Amino acid sequence: MKFPKAVACGGAVLGIFLSTSMSVFAATDELEEVVITAGKRKENLQDVPIAVTAVSGDAFNDANVSGFSEVAKFAPSLTVTAGDQPANNAIVVRGVGTFAFSIAAEPSVLVVVDDAPVGYQAQAFTDLVDIDRVEVLNGPQSTLFGKSASAGVINVVTKDPTGTFTYFGDVKVTNDNEQRATLSLSGPISDTLSYRVSGNYRHWDGNVKNLVNNSKIDNDNAGGIRAKVQWRPNDDMTAQFTLHHSQDHSNCCGVPLVRLDSGATLFGQAALPQAVAIPGVVPGPENDEVSIDQVPQAYSEDTGFTSHITYDTDKVIFLSVSAIDQYHLRDLTDYDTSAVDTLQYFTPFNNTQPVGSRPVSTGQLHGGLLQGGSFKVKTFTQEFRLSSNGKQNFNYVAGAYFSSENLVRAFGRGFVGNTKAIANWRGETQYQNYALYGQTSWLFLPRTTLITGLRFNREESSYAYDDYYRVVHFSAVGNPTSDVDNVTTGKLGLQYQISDDMMVFAFAAKGYKGVAYDLVTGLSAVEAASFPVRAEKSNDYEVGLRSEWFEHRMLFNATVYHTEYSDFQVQTIVPTILNSFILTNIPKVRTRGVELETAAQMTERLHISVSYAYTDARAIEYPIGQCYSGQVLPTTCALSPGYQDLAGATLPNAPKNKVTASLEYKQKFSALPVDASLKLSSVWQSAEFFSITKDPGTRQPAYGVTNLNLELTPQQHDRFSISLFCNNLFDKHYAANLTNVRGNWGFPSAAGTAYTQVLPRDFSRYFGIRLAIQSH
Predict the structure, then answer these.
(1) Could you say which of 198, 280, 312, 502 is the most buried, measured as most Cβ atoms within 10 Å of its Cβ?
(2) Which pTM does this prediction carry?
(3) b/e string for 11-22 if b means 16 or more Cβ within 10 A?
(4) Tell me: the pLDDT tens digits for 263-280?
């Protein structure tokens, strides 16, 4: 039985904690002030008139998680959709994310690391190491952050060098064969020079079993280093230079079948029933097994350099941020997802073109139909920023921004050992972005502040597409391949300080997401002639409350919002392009909701926090939406191509209700020479769909996950600590994505269905131990 196992996992931790008498633990009984940079200046979170969830690096350590996707466990308005490859992952804020497959489609949620925007969203999915905090900015942030922040921003801030020698290191091991080690050193080199170096390594066996050779996949071998040097020649000037490199070699991602109706045959071939195609696999919600002859691969490397030059006169602060980055991802998957060599079941193809971009199999077991290639992303950004010190009645942030991005996708699909290809193409896009922006806050009446913001943005983009299999090249199809888009976004709001501890605000803002190009397999001349896909625009309206109570022992924050998107970019059916599932615009999407956050220092030993998000994200006008495979109603789904009116459909991965909660209790044992900290954290969300089509097979029922951590610190050696933890305490299985794969199977009747699932890291309960050492 599952529940007794959960009790066994957590009971030992609770038993140690409660089995002896305890005395008072000396600690402050006020909430700590949280400083963020969401407004591109350092401010108390309670003074910032936008919806922000701030998660400290210590919170990640206490939860014994490190992956970027785990941020969603702390932020109720954030979800992450896992793909069958890292490049297909999607970050979703308030129900709005990127629902496109092209490398030339910008994300709706911008990720920023130490003031440098990430060029490609897949780069963000890495270990979070030596983190000071992660800020989740909900809603459009286009005024300060630009064209890729139409739904929100994830602002990652790593720790800076210190003036005294400090260190931190930890080692974590789990019962499911995860080992992770980190080390960070920081200190002075001279009176004006200091450094910080951090490194990490992680190995995990994975949680999907491949029955072909009884090995684990979805495993991970990742590591990285980040080095910072800070020079302070005087009190006014600071120059900081950061070099980072990371790599991740993962056999990712296995997609176990959650449902496969009886009588299924792979690709409709009578010789390939389920018992032959995927021997040993038993589809079901708890299935964590696959049977494939090609191990999926996702190998990535990321190298970058960032410089921060700051001149602070105490009244005016000048900042220059320069960043260059190069990211490379190689992917390879088994398209037929089977244990057999499917080449023998297909008629040879007539393609005689070279297959230079088709992936070469490494780790092949038998053979079959493979697909993959590479992603290459090069970015350069330069930002100049001028801001006041935030202490005057009139404060401002103004800046100039430039970025250059070059993104290349090479893709192939073909049979192992065969010189022919089914798909073989290369797509490239370039973006140059220029912007001037400014935002002001003016205390024009007692306790009343006017907020204004404006951004002028110019984007120049171009693309090229070479299809070697079909022998086509889209550089001139009646329209030029380059495009120029000029747009103005802005913000207008009021902030009223009811008392020293209570503030309300209201604002309206415009958001923007740049043009896109649908560089995917099968790009047609008709679609290319319609490029670019129009920019996505939004109007956002928000009202909020920020308050502290009981002499700063408790806070309560609330935000109500309504955001409308026009020309929303989405992959869908376009009837004028027969049987084409392409990237295009739908007329209108809307998200609205309520976000609540409370935290309380109940006693000097007990801290509690609870956050809640109600999200109603849906298409308002979507007259021609895709049908899911196997759909028969409405009758328009039987047409070619099939379509349906999806007005009112809920957006993917947008649960209506989501709650995060944590409880931390600190205590000193009188009978033992240790201090203890017990932390319980939970996240619960209501049911959601992973497809906008209302496909019932992509519905994830409501679920909750609870983590437990006990940290023990010797009183005489408080630089050391040991943590015993259990994640997914109640062993709740859930999916990080559900996909309709009926197209890969044939059935004796038209009603047959097939669905796969992507398993999250904590699909099953696991426990472990973490040893840490740190300076005071």
Answers:
(1) 198
(2) 0.92
(3) eebeebbeeeeb
(4) 999 989 899 999 999 999
